[in-house]
Amino acid sequence: MNFKNMFRQAGNQLEGEDAARAQGAEAASKPLVCPSCGKKSDKKELIAALSVCPYCGYNFRISARRRIAMLTDPDTFSELYGDMRSQNILGFPDYDEKLEASREKSRENEGVICGVAEIGGYPCCLFVMESRFMMGSMGTVVGEKITRLFEYATGQGLPVIGVTVSGGARMQEGMYSLSQMAKVSGAVKYHSDAGNLYVVLLTDPTTGGVSASFAMLGDVILAEPGALIGFAGPRVIEQTIRKSLPKGFQSAEFLLSCGYIDEIVPRRRQKDYLTLLLRAHRKGEGYDRI
Amino acid sequence: MTGYERVLKTRQPDRPVASDFIAGMFTDFTEFHGDRRVGDDPAILAGIAFLDGKPVTVIGIEKGHDTADKIKRNFGSAHPEGYRKALRQMKLAEKFHRPVVCLVDTAGAYCGISAEERGQALAIAENLAEMMTLRTPVISVIIGEGGSGGAIGLAVADRVWMLENAYYSVVSPEGCASILWKDTAKAAEAAESLKLTAGDLFDMGIVERVFPEPESLAEQQAREPLFAALRDALDAELNRLSRLPVQTLLADRYERFRKVGRPSR
After folding, report:
1. Quick check: B264 contacting A, CB < 8 Å?
2. Which of A75, A156, A209, B177 is surrounded by the most beta carbons within 10 Å?
3. d(CA B4, CA B190)
C-alpha cells in the first residue's frame, strides 16, 4: 500500500482543473501542460474535450461531480448519505488537518459520492470516488457509504455503477479501514447473489485495498485508457524486486491483455457504453419474459 | 511492551510458524496442493486435519523454518495462486460440511511482477466476497504478522482471534512511516498510531479473543500450553458455531464486519 507518488502525481494532474476553478475566467486562456506528452492545450478547449489531451489521448483526472455530470442524464442524480463526515477515531497524528484540507480542496465531505441516477433513461445506483479527497482512500465513511449504497440497491433490485479512483485503504483509520474491504465486498456479494448488475469503471489510479476488494468484483469491469490499476503501487513493487518496471506495467492496457478487465472505454463513449449495459440487463425484458 | 516491540517480536526466527501450530494443535494433517489454475504456492499450506477427532479444513500462511524453506515459501508472502488454493479448499470444506481454520502470519501478500500479472488484487477480492457467504464456520487466528490485504484475504471469518504479541494492520509500520513521514525510523511511532496490537484491536472490536503468550515461544515446551489453549478454544467455538442454522451463521458474519464504521460507534 503506497500512496506517496500518487499523491504527488495527483497534485500535478489536478492543478489545471483546480486552478481554473479558483481563478475563473482568467485561467481559461491559460495553457495546460499534459503530464504525459508535455504539450500545451487551451484550458477551455481541454474541458470541452472531456479533459482528454488532444495530442496523446491522456485522460486528465477529473472531479467526481464532473464525472457524474458526464455519465448521468441531466437533473437525475440524487445524492445519498452526502452529509457523512469522517472523524479521527484513532486520534491519528495530523489526520484532522488532512481531513479539513481535503474537504477544502475537494469541496466534498468525503472521498466518495453516492446516489441514484438515470443513465440513458435507466435507473441505477451510482458511486464515484474523488481523488482530491486523500487520493480517494477508503476509511470507514467511504466504506459505509458504498456498503449502504449496495444494500439499498439490493433492496430496490437496482444495478450499481461504480467509478473508482483510490490509493487504497486509509492508513489513518488503521484496522477500521482494512475491515471496510471485507464489509463492502460482502455487500457486493449479497447484491450479486440477488441477481443484480454491478459495473465498475476503474480510473487512474485504482490500487491497494480498493483494487483488492470491490474494484475487482464487478460483473463487468471497464477501465479508462492509461489508468494505473494494481494491487501494489509501482514504487512498492520496485522496492520489493529491486528492479525498475517495464513500461506500461499495471496500465489498463496491460490488465486487458492479462484478462482482468472486460474493456477499455474512452471518456466520450462511457455513457453510451453504460447505457447499453443497463439496457442489456433490464430484468424481465428479454427472453426471460417468455 | 510497545506496539513496535511486539511487531519485531513476531518477526523473530525462533517464533513458531503455521506448520508448528498445525502440528501442535491438530492430528493427521494432510496437505493438498495447487489452485487448479496456474500452480501451487508453497506460501500457503492447506489441507485437512482432525481437531478432537473431527475433520476440519486448515489453511495457514507458512513462513518456513530454515533459509532454503523460507525462500521456497517466499517468506510467507503469498501469490494469487496461494489465495486461490485457499479458496478452493474452503469450497471443499463447504461441500463436505467441515469448518475452516485459517492461521494468518504474513508481512503482506507478495508485491511483485508475477503477482500483479496473475491478479493479486482479484484473488484477494474474491476471497473476501466468497468467505463472507461460505456456508460453514470459519475461524481465523492471527498467529504472528497480520499484514494488510494479504492477511484479511484469509480473515473474513465468524471469529478472528489473535495471539498476544501478534499484530494486525492496514499497513506495515515501516510503510506507514515512509509514506506519511518519509522516514522509516519513525516506524515505532507509526505502530503506536495504527493501534495494531491484539489488546488495541480487542478494545476496538476487531478481534474477539486474545491468547496470552509466555515470555518466549522459542522452546517446544513453552509452546505446548499455547497450542493446547488454542485447540480447546477452537473445539469449543466450532462446536458452538456448527450448531447455528447456516442463515444465522452468515447473517452474524456479515454483521460482524458490517458494524465496523457505523456512525453510531
Report:
1. no
2. A209
3. 8
Inter-chain touch A215–B171, beta carbons under 8 Å: no
How far apart CA B59 and CA B43 sit, in angstroms, is: 10
| φ, ψ (nearest 5 deg) of residue B167 | -130, 160
Mean pLDDT, rounded, for A228-247? 92
CATH superfamily of A61-281: 2-enoyl-CoA Hydratase; Chain A, domain 1 (3.90.226.10)
d(CA B196, CA B198): 7
**For chain B, what are the domain ranges?**
3-252
**Residue A174 to residue B195, Cβ atoms within 8 A:** yes
Reduce the DSSP state of residue B105 to 3 states and report it: strand
Phi, psi of B262 (to 5 degrees): -65, 135
Residue A202 has pLDDT above 70, yes or no: yes
B228 touches chain A (CB under 8 A): no
**Residue B32, C-beta contacts closer than 8 angstroms, at least 6 positions apart:** B46, B47, B48, B89
| Stretch 90-109 of chain A: residues touching chain B, C-beta under 8 Å | 90-94
Q: What is the pLDDT of residues A238-267, one digit of tens each?
A: 988 999 999 999 999 999 999 999 999 999
Per-residue pLDDT of A9-67, as tens digits, reads: 443 444 445 544 544 444 456 789 999 999 999 999 999 999 999 999 999 999 999 99
How would you write chain A as a 3-class SS string?
CCCHHHHHHHHHHHHHHHHHHHHCHHHHCCEEECCCCCCEEEHHHHHHCCCECCCCCCECCCCHHHHHHHHCCCCCCEEECCCCCCCCCCCCCCHHHHHHHHHHHHCCCCCEEEEEEEECCEEEEEEEECCCCHHHCECHHHHHHHHHHHHHHHHHCCCEEEEEEECCECHHHHHHHHHHHHHHHHHHHHHHHCCCCEEEEEEEEECHHHHCCHHHCCCEEEECCCCEECCCCHHHHHHHHCCCCCCCCCEHHHHHHHCCCCEECCHHHHHHHHHHHHHHCCCCCCHHHC
Query: Packing angle between helix B173-181 and helix B187-194, nearest 10 degrees?
Result: 110
- CATH placement of domain B3-252: 3.90.226.10
Number of cross-chain residue pairs from A and B with Cβ atoms under 8 Å apart: 180
Q: Which residues contact B181 (CB under 8 A, 6 or more apart)?
A: B189, B190
pLDDT tens-digit profile of B184-222? Answer: 899 999 999 999 999 999 999 999 999 999 999 999 999
Sign of CA dihedral B181, B183, B184, B185: negative
3-state secondary structure of B57: strand
pLDDT at A15: 43
